[in-house]
Design goal:
By secondary structure, this protein is an all-alpha fold. The protein has one domain. The protein is built from 4 helices and no strands. The termini are far apart.
Length: 152
């Protein structure tokens, strides 16, 4: 369980840092040239610059990954759900970009692989948490309570 948590944190940290950098570049240089994204990719889309995509990347991947890392470190009850949710959101975001831009890049496949890994790690940690809680319930000794209403 500890290894799965550490691997989740490592993947989320890389996603957080790379998406914060990428979103910063997209917002500050809305033409995409600072990231090597050709501006013509936006032709025929609802976007006239990379800035809105940068803001979506910032909030959906960057900030949410950071929040998920904090929840994992604090070992909140729902952190495994957040890991799975981040994986799903990441995959949806990348698939939408692939459809929207009609071109694919290596980095998109790496992000999809990271999303799938997060989903798997989240499921693994959630199943482990459920098993541990069930085991605790099963082996917790029942407290006997005195029957005050009985007369001896």
């Amino acid at each position: 369980m500890k290894v799965a948590r550490q691997l989740s944190i490592a993947i989320l940290f890389l996603l957080c840092i790379s998406s914060l950098y990428g979103s910063y570049q997209m917002i500050n240089d809305s033409t995409g040239s600072s990231l090597g994204l050709p501006y013509y990719l936006l032709n025929g889309t609802v976007f006239d610059s990379y800035a809105p995509i940068g803001w979506i990347l910032f909030s959906v991947v960057g900030v949410f990954s950071g929040v998920t890392i904090i929840c994992i470190m604090k070992k909140t009850r729902f952190y495994s759900f957040l890991i799975m949710l981040q994986g799903v959101l990441l995959c949806i975001f990348i698939f939408m970009l692939m459809l929207l831009l009609a071109e694919t890049f290596l980095v998109q496949y790496l992000f999809i692989a990271a999303g799938i890994a997060l989903i798997g790690l989240g499921v693994l940690q959630n199943q482990r948490r459920i098993a541990v809680e069930a085991e605790k319930k099963l082996y917790t000794p029942q407290k006997s309570h005195p029957h005050k209403h009985r007369k001896d």
